[in-house]
Amino acid sequence: MSNAVSVSFNTSKNLSKTRILLFIIPVVALAACASPEKKWVHSEEPVTPADKDMVQCKYQAAGSTAALAADSSARSKEEANLVNACMRAKGYKQ
Q1: Contact by Cβ (8 Å): 86, 61
Q2: Domains contained in the chain, number
Q3: Residue 57 burial by CB count (10 A; 0-12/13-18/19+): exposed, middle or buried?
Q4: Torsion angle, CA of 72/80/58/49, rounded to 10 degrees?
Q5: Among 20, 28, 78, 82, who pairs with 61 as Cys (CB 3.0-4.6 Å)?
Q6: Does residue 15 register a pLDDT over 70?
């Protein structure tokens, strides 16, 4: 009879280890899938969609007026016109 008790005890130990492994393996797999990349966020100034669109429009305007580098006043006026046109094209109004 002692053999029957030791066999059932060993079986329950194996079941416990199996249950633990069935819990740990998915947890480890999920942790491995987590993205290590962190995003930069400024704590004081939230970024709105309008801010993002303005930055994009200014970047495009600066690239489009790069050839006008010799005449800074003409370049500034043209950049302002391009930024305004870009923002209007995105649906914004002043």
Answers
A1: yes
A2: 1
A3: buried
A4: 160
A5: 82
A6: no
The greatest distance separating any two alpha carbons of the chain, rounded to the nearest whole angstrom, comes to 102
Tokens found for residue 33: 């899938």
Length of the chain: 94
Tokens found for residue 34: 């987590």
Q: Domain range for residue 76?
A: 49-90
How many C-alpha atoms does 29 have within 13 Å on its Cβ side? 6
Q: Which of 8-22, 49-63, 73-87 has the least mean pLDDT?
A: 8-22
Between residues 16 and 80, the one the model is more confident about: 80
The pair of structure tokens assigned to 51 is 């801010």
> Using an 8 Å Cβ cutoff, are 61 and 83 in contact?
yes
On whether residue 57 sits in a domain, the answer given is: yes
Quick: pLDDT tens for 19-72: 776 777 766 666 666 666 666 666 666 678 898 999 999 999 998 888 876 778
Q: Is residue 79 part of a domain?
A: yes
